[in-house]
Every structure is written in structure tokens, then in C-alpha cells.
Amino acid sequence: MSLSPLSTSPGPAAPAAVPPPARTYSVAIAGSGGAGVMTAGTLLLDAAARAGLYGLMVRTSGPQIRGGEAAALLRLGPQPVVTLDDRFDLLLAIDWQNLHRFADEIPLGEGSLLVGDVDAGEAPEVLRRTGARLHALALKKTAKAAGGAWVNMIALGLAGTLAGVPAAALEAALRASWRRSEESLAPNVAALLQGVAMAQGLPGERPDPLLPRTDAPAGRWMLSGNEAAGCGALRGGVRFVAAYPITPATELLEWMAPALTRVGGTLLQAEDELASVNMIIGASYGGVPSLTATAGPGLALMTEAIGLAVTAEVPIVVVDVMRGGPSTGIPAKSEQSDLSFAVDGLHGDAPRLALAPSSIADCLTTTEWAVHLAEALQAPAIVLSDQFMGQSRAVIDRPPQADAAARRLTAPAPDATAGAAVPAYQRYLDTVTGISPMAVPGTPGTVYTADGLEHTERGIPSSQASDHRKQLDKRLRKLEQHDYGPRWADIEGDAELAVITFGSTTGAVREAVARAAVQGVALRLVSLRLLAPLRTEALAQALQGVRQVLVVEQNHGGQLLRYLRSRFDLPGRASGLHRPGPLPLRPGELCAAFIEWAAAHAPQEITA
Amino acid sequence: MNDMVLAAPLRAADYKSDYKPIWCPGCGDYTVLSSLTKALAMIQRPPHEVAVVSGIGCSSRIPAYTTCYGFHGVHGRSLAAATGLKVARPDLTVIVTGGDGDGYSIGGNHFMHACRRNVDLTYIVMDNHVYGMTKGQASPTTEPDWDNKLSPGGTGIRAFNPLVIALAAGANFVARGFSGDPNGTAEIIAQAIRHPGFSFVEVMSPCVTFRPEQKQWKDLVREAPVQATDDPALAARRLMTDDGFNIGVLHAGNRNPYPTRMGRTATSVADLESEFEL
Question: Can you list the residues of chain B whose pLDDT is less than 50?
């Protein structure tokens, strides 16, 4: 069986294929606590943006609360960046302390540069044997000589210059961020420029630097996925948040706390997640769109109350910034392993919404959409972000404003002059759409009791089979019959072999698909944004003409594959490609796997 | 409300719905419901401006028996739901009702934090020292030697003292009522609703089915011989030596309630977003 191009275009309406990947530059800046690697990384990202570039910065650190080793992992390029590359072009280590703990996360290779401090001793064996070209430079001494500047400014000048970011942009980023005295700025600018000079004087071969862009779109943003989700929540209309601190969701809440106050809302720190989810249900029952954010352990505690939101039909949004699980798992590292729990993890027959953003920019739009859907459908919506998106920062194009907010259908006060002729308000009226007007407390004439007990249309507790059946049908129907439009998934390409994925893995999968296309292997990409309810008819449409499916995800059990199989007849012999966190799925390894998989499923050649 | 309704004072009956309670004949909760509706009539807040929030248990069925907005949530989380509602909708009068299992066992953590948070809520616990809905198990306020199927011979665990815990945690108003004294309890509840911050009213409400001996409570209760104090330490000292049958308001404090921030400012989200711009 030979490897050959697998697909031809079946028609003119085929969705656009994934464009070929652009050249990018990957930098890791590592060091022990206090070395300022995160500051250097953030400034480098800012400077790259000033040079018209895009970028992504992933933070990684050891388990220490404060201090300890840390690394800023950046990938810069002329187009928006949503995933890390296979290898780093440069690892700049301010010191080597405990750097071996990150070796897995900072793959180097022939052609990579490994830059360290000449006075920091020998580079760890695990890094030296990568084949990277090692340069030992006087980082700390030069910083000291520049009037007591910070060593991370040398690192910023060095890394920025090697990546192709002009010195003027680096300096502008530094000056813009400076919050201390003018006198202390001068030596740091000097150190930055020393770093620039060091890079320029570096002997030997080096990876090609990027070229600044002068035509970058105006109005770009820089933010983290957690901030993006928080911003999307506000755009969607959320004005009440109750939450309990948990890694890696805390920054979302810390961003929202002052932001909510400014827009006239409130954030309340609850005593635990049982309280936080019930608080938002209470607030939403009161008519105020409400949200909480958590991670796996918190989501587990919230499940009983999410079932209440299903039954009492109270809109809420729960953002789950996924981390390694189960149990306490790996709190500060990413994994897509809460999917099964989000789509199936409630007792009883409990239809709910589950959505997954696929990039930092999408954290904003998908969270906003989740608020709209929850409000419009009077149901709980779980948003599956993850640590990779939540705690990383990116330069993105300004997210577009949603056309219109979907609002809750509320019950008006009945005409008081009509007297007894007004029929009694039925909170859970069995309508065609399944959506019934929800009264806001304070409104006369529409008093009801929201109840977790099964109930009649009037809202009176009932254990009768007919009432149970009617309300179960209603709650399912309202989610199933809703028109979700085209946003339920991103569908790219029209090949006969399809790769299905979701969430933050989408970036690496999309890049791998593009690379495979360059090598003559055509693949269709389907990235699911609306996970529940699964749009089976739309999925069948998206997979029309597909012979085989590969499901890619970052978890141990193949949760998306199992979920799809349980709800849908996937074409061919569907297989899965899944690996647990904390290591990200990288485009290169995915591309190699895709090509191998495509070869195994090449059409049988007909021989005469 | 239209003017016509406003013109006539609201009566207790205006707060009572047509639904027939599921309670056993003789249950103390009937009179607590009456006390609540009487108290609401004293307050004269229209029913649709009042929300009654509860968890799970016999007494937690109260919301639907009123003509107020009701919320009957999950077991033990009524205070959390009510906190969210009151903070998001400070214009409403929010009353929380429930039993001793719901409030002191599964909801114990929320009880403590509701007391210290001091949101302007009124929490009425109908305490009968037993789980009635699950047919007779020990609750946190059950005597240690009370024999039952789940803990034969009794739990052996000392009973919880909710009023002292409430004082220690910072409740701004602490009172004890008795279901056999509906008018007195109504007065206490009305006072609790009017008092700013978190008001806790423990009402002794006999379970005639599983704790028939509690019918004797009517002979044991007495009006507390002392006046309410604004000093929680003094109130706690009195309670530590109290036999559990003194009824009345024991503590009326002056802590500031949890502040309301909703709607205070109205910056547009678009303005906030400028912080992300490069």
C-alpha cells in the first residue's frame, strides 16, 4: 500500500482547507525563582506584538508556591499562534537550577541554540545531548556591570534579537511596562541593549530570525485564556459570580472581581464549591446572569447542584479550567480529562450544555456564547477551558462583538385589572420549544417555587409518571431543538479521512493537518465546540464522504472517542489518538501519526 | 401591586398558598408556617417581593406553602442559594427555612459562613432533633442516647448547640422560638426580618411521629428571664448554661451587614476591554 494523495475536491461548496503553516520562532526563557523569566517572557511577547508579530506564551513552573524554577515558553510568528511547536529554536537559561525538571517540556534538537551563563556551571546532561549548539555567556556579570541591572533584561535583549524582534520594540516594551524610578530604568535599558549586542555577536549558525510585520492589523489584544473567558462572560451579560479559589482557574476570578464591580456586578468568594454553585443558582433565579469558575475537583463537588439547575431550569455557566486528574492530580498542568464528566457526569437524565473553546481568543467568544445559550435555554452550561489556554497569554486579533445577546425569556406581570380571568402562571409550561417564560422574583402575579423535585407545569412537586415524562421530554427538547447555527464545530477541508478533536488540542491538530497537506496527505478537520448536546445531524453532514475517522485528544482514556461512539455511528473503523497531560500534543508528532494513519487507510489500488 | 391591593393591609392568609402540606397531623411545622405568614403580615411586604428559600427535609417544604417566590433546592445548600439571591437582588426580602439535619449537618459549613458573612437574611430552623423525612435517624441536635435503627443505642455523640455556634460565628441576631407559641414566634420572626444582617431563629418544632416525647416541650419552655443583649459573649455565656427551653430573642447585634455592590457603577464592558489593547 503506497502513500498517495487521498482526496480530490467533490464540489464547489467545500469548506476552506487549513492554510499552510508560517515560519515561527520558539523561545524558552528559564531560571530559578526571582530570575524574572516570566517578566522577560511577557515583555518579549509585548515587544513581538509591537513588531507586528503574533505570539503565545505558556508558563510552566515547579510545585513551589513561590520561587522555584520556572520557564516562559514562547512561540512567535507572523500569524496568530495557538499551539507550541515541536522544538525550541532557543533555550535561554539564566541558571541551570532544576532545569532538568522541564527538559521534557522544552524539546531541543540539532540547530537549536542553548544559551546559559558562563558562571552557572555546566549545562545539564539531558540538555547537552540534544545536539543543541551551546553558548556560555556572561549574563549575570554583564547585568551587574550595567549598573546593577536585572539579568532578565540581558535575556530579553538576547532572546528578542535572536527571534528577530527589533531592539526598538524591545526597548519600547520595557519602557511601557516600567513602574519604578527613571534612574533605575536606565541601567536596565543598557542591559537590554547589551543583550542585543551579545546576540548580534554570537558566533556560528543560528535559526533564522523572524521578520517584523508592518502590515499587522490594528486593534490587536494581548491577554490570557482566563482573562478572555472572564471578558466573554461579561460580554455575555454575567453580573454575578461566586467562586472558590482553585488552580488553574483563580486568575479568571481575580480578573473578574474588580471588573464586575466596575460594570455594576459582584463577585463573592464562597466557602466551598458546593456554596459557589448554589449561590450562582440563587442569583440566577433572581434574574441575574451568573457564573462560577473552577477546575476538576470543584466541578465534582458542584454536580449535584448542576442537576438542580437542570431540573429547576435555572441558567448558569460553570467554567472548568481543566487540569490533570483525577483527584488532586496535577493542579498546574493541562489535560482534557473532564470531558466525560462534563457531558455525562450528573445523576438522572440531565440534559445540559457543554462547550469547549479551541484557543485563547475562543475562550472569549465561546464563554460569551455559553452565557447566551444558558440564558436562552434556561439550562446549565459547562465550558471546558484548560490550564494550557487559561494560564497562557497570546497576541490575538480583537475578538468580534457578538451580533446580539440571547436573552432569557421572562414572564411578564399579568394584567392586574383582568382579575380572576388571568390563568395561573405555569413556570414549567410544556411549550413547543420546551422553553417556558421564567418569572423574575419581584414581579407580581407570577409567583412560583423553583424546585429540584420533579414537578407539574405549575411547579408543584409531583411523583406521577406522566409529569416526570413530560418534564424530562421538555428539558431534553429545549436543548435538542435549538438552532445552534454554524458555531457548533469548526470544519475545514473535504478529505475522505477526518480528524476530530476539541478544545485546546485543536491548535496542534490544525497545524499537523496543514503540515500533512504539504506532504500530500489531505485530511478533514472537525473541531467540536458544542459538545453537548451533540449535534448528530450536523456531524453526519460534516462527515459526509468520510471513510475513516481519527479522534485526537489530551487524556488517557479516549473520552471524546468513547463519547462520540456512544452517541453516533462514526464512519469506518474509528480510532483514537490520545495521550494524557501534562505534555502537550505537538504538531510534528501528530503530523507523523496522521500520515501513518492515512497510509493505513489509503484506498485500495485497483490493479489490472 | 395595584393601588387597590395596597389600600387594604395584607393579612397572614394572603401569604398562605392553597397547597396542602405533606406534614403529619400534629407536626410543629404547621404552626411555624403560621408564624411565618403572621410575621410577613406584620412586615406588610407584598408576597411577590419576598423569597422563601429552603433545602431538603420536612420543614424545607415551606416555600410552596406560601404565596411568596419560592426556591426549594438541594439538601443543605439553602443558605448558599439565598446568599446568592440576596446579594444579586438586595431589593428582595429573603427568608431561609429548613430543619436541623439540613442546616446543621449537611449544611453545617454554610451555616457557619452565613453567620460570619452577615448577609441580610432571616434563617428559620425548625429543630425537631430528628431526620423525619427519612423516617427517624439522629440529627446533630439529637440526644446521644436516643435509640434508632441507624444508630442502635444512640449515636453516643453530644448534641450540637446551634445558638452558641451562631454567636461564635458572628450571627447578628439570635433567637429561640417554640412552635407551640405561634404568636410569640411570629413576633420573633418579624423582629428577625427587620434586623439588619444575618438573623438566626431556631424554632423548637416537635416531630410527633418519630419523637412523640417532644409533645412535652410545651410544659418545659419558658420565656427567657433576661433581655436580649448586643454583646455576643454575654449571650453565649447565658446559652452555655441554658437548659434549651428559654425562648425569646437572645442577641441583637450591631454588625454591619454584607455590603451591596450590585448596580453601584456602570462602566461598559467595552471600556474594560481597553486594558487588553496593545
Answer: 1-4
The strand pairing partners of A381, in sequence order, are A317, A353
Interface test with A, best of B37, B48, B52, B109 (most A CBs within 10 A): B48
Asked if B277's CB is within 8 angstroms of A286's CB, the reply is no
Q: What is the DSSP string of B70-123?
A: EEE-STT-HHHHHHHHHHH-TTSEEEEEEEHIIIIIITHHHHHHHHHHT-S-EE
Same fold yes or no, A222-396 and A486-600: yes
**Structure confidence at residue A102 (pLDDT):** 80
* A231–B266 C-beta distance less than 8 A: no
CA neighbours within 13 Å on the CB side: how many for A24?
24
B268 contacts in A (CB within 8 Å)? 263
Is residue A417 exposed (0-12), middle (13-18) or buried (19+ Cβ within 10 Å)? exposed
Amino acid occupying residue A432? V
Q: What is the C-alpha to C-alpha distance for residues B170 and B174, in angstroms, rounded to an integer?
A: 10
Higher pLDDT, A176 or A602: A176
Interface with A, mutate which of B53, B116, B273, B274 (most A CBs under 10 A): B273
Rounded CA-CA distance A360/B189 in Å is 51
State yes or no: pLDDT of A25 exceeds 90.
Answer: yes
Least confident of A58-72, A195-209, A532-546: A58-72
pTM of the predicted protein model: 0.95
CB contact under 8 A, B92 and A268: no
Considering only the beta carbons, identify the residue of A234, A235, A282 that sits closest to B53: A282
Indicate if the pLDDT at residue A4 is higher than 60.
no
Q: Are A402 and A235 in contact (CB under 8 A)?
A: yes
> A246 to each of A250, A321, A476, how far by Cα in Å?
5, 9, 32
Domain ranges of chain B: 11-276
Report the pLDDT averaged over residues A521-527: 98
**Whole-Å CA distances, A52 to A47, A180, A222, A239, B21:** 9, 27, 13, 35, 69
Alpha carbon distance A160, A27 (integer Å): 9
Q: Given an 8 Å threshold on Cβ–Cβ distance, is B110 in contact with A235? A: no
**SS3 call for A127:** helix
Q: Considering the domain A486-600, what is its CATH architecture?
A: 3-Layer(aba) Sandwich (3.40)
Does domain A222-396 match CATH 3.40.50.970? yes
Partner A contacted by B116 (CB < 8 A): no
For A145-192, the pLDDT digits (tens) are: 988 899 999 999 999 999 999 999 999 999 999 999 999 999 999 999
Residue of A nearest to B260 (CA): A266
CB contact under 8 A, A447 and B67: yes
Candidates A276, A367, A449: best to mutate against B (most CBs of B within 10 A) is A449
Q: Do B64 and A449 touch (CB under 8 A)?
A: yes
List the beta strands (DSSP E) in A417-505.
449-451, 489-492, 497-502
CATH 3.40.50.10860 is the classification of domain A25-200: no
Q: Is B1 on the interface with A (CB under 8 A)?
A: yes
Q: Which residue ranges make up each domain of chain A?
A: 25-200, 222-396, 409-482, 486-600
CB contact B84 to A (< 8 Å): yes
Q: A8: pLDDT confidence band, cut at 50, 70 and 90?
A: very low
B272 contacts A263? CB cut-off 8 A: yes
Residue A115's nearest CA partner among A250, A230, A207 is A207
* CATH classification for the domain delimited by B11-276, as one of 3.40.50.150, 3.40.50.11810, 1.10.260.40, 3.40.50.970: 3.40.50.970
Q: Which residues of B touch A417 (CB under 8 A)?
A: 2
Give contacts of A451 with chain B, Cβ < 8 Å.
64, 70, 72
